[in-house]
Amino acid sequence: MSISRKNDHLDIVLGGHAASSVSSGFERFVFEHVALPEINMDEIELGTEFLGKRISAPLLVSSMTGGPERAELINANLATACEELGIAFAVGSQRVALETDENAGLGRRLRDLAPSIPLMANFGAAQLNLGYGREQAMRAVDMIGADALIIHLNPLQEAVQPEGDRNWRGLFQAIEHLAGNLSVPLAVKEVGSGISAPLARRLFNAGVSIIDVAGAGGTSWAAVEAGRAHSPVQAEVARAFTGWGQPTADAIHEVREACPDALVIGSGGVRDGVDVAKAIRLGADLAGQAAGTLGAATVSADAVMDHFNAIIAQLKVTCFCTGSKDLQTLKEARLRSARDIFMPSAIR
């Protein structure tokens, strides 16, 4: 993967030209307001366990990074902020670092900056058809001292990208083989089009323990590739798919039903702490945010902390106003269809 391509991706996302043309679906749900919560807001517990470590809130930061210099700054700011906040951090693709001498900010210094939080390594599924296997997977893990490895699925992006890797034959078997030979948990995530319930079940049965649905409603990689297309025809092809995929809210609910024992991460268009709460209520164990974090990550670790402190505060207010003393109680809070709220004739 070229460094210039990674920089193009970063510029397009930061420029605000990468939004999906469909919604994440969270706006279709509203919590039933509890006017008499009978709990102490200061005692609400947002902490949970993830990858054998205690985190302060059910949040995962996924980064999208550019070339080495920018990636180093972004990753350092994210790692520093996540350590201070006590939340999990999943790095962007390590392909450049694995294939060149540039570690793109993905060296052991990352673990030094974040010694106590869950860290997740990451590369694309397509690389499993290009010579990657257990050796490269463990190199990615060891490179940052990660607690787990993510294999990301991005078939739509590869299909509309001029340089895309389009041979995906046999990748399920390759993922299954990797899951059985890693010394750390394996996660599989999409990048913005969602993972269906049947695929999630197959992956879980194959040994994948973490499913990040990464649904539609946030960054559209078809929009990103349209923005860097080499010709008007390529751009036109990519733009047709800016609304492709399952909305995140639907994907979370369906994957949870299909995989009751899996660890489910809900990402894709998570805007604020209210969306985080909805993701948890719909079945996610953690909520992830990438593009929404990126602007702050290019500024400073303090900016990242300010961003997530607001999300954590919003999540706590949501818990208070639903009478939820902790995340387990939040998973049982009453969630209603917004359509029923605003169209009373639809209520049965």
Automatic annotation (TrEMBL):
Keyword line: Cytoplasm, Flavoprotein, FMN, Isomerase, Isoprene biosynthesis, Magnesium, Metal-binding, NADP
Cofactor (UniProt): Mg(2+); FMN; NADPH
Main location: cytoplasm
Intracellular or extracellular location(s): Cytoplasm
BP GO annotations: isoprenoid biosynthetic process
UniProt KW Amino-acid biosynthesis keyword: no
Alphabetized InterPro entries for the sequence: Aldolase_TIM (IPR013785), FMN-dep_DH (IPR000262), IPdP_isomerase (IPR011179)
Domain of life: Bacteria
Domain FMN-dependent dehydrogenase: 106-336
Residues reported in the UniProt entry to bind substrate: R5, K6, S93, Q94, R95, Q157
Residues the entry annotates as binding FMN: S62, S63, M64, T65, S93, N122, K189, T219, G269, V270, R271, A290, A291
Reaction it catalyzes: isopentenyl diphosphate = dimethylallyl diphosphate
GO MF: FMN binding; isopentenyl-diphosphate delta-isomerase activity; magnesium ion binding; NADPH binding; oxidoreductase activity
Subunit details: Homooctamer. Dimer of tetramers.
Chain's role: Involved in the biosynthesis of isoprenoids. Catalyzes the 1,3-allylic rearrangement of the homoallylic substrate isopentenyl (IPP) to its allylic isomer, dimethylallyl diphosphate (DMAPP).
Name of protein: Isopentenyl-diphosphate delta-isomerase
Organism: Aureimonas fodinaquatilis
Lineage: Bacteria, Pseudomonadati, Pseudomonadota, Alphaproteobacteria, Hyphomicrobiales
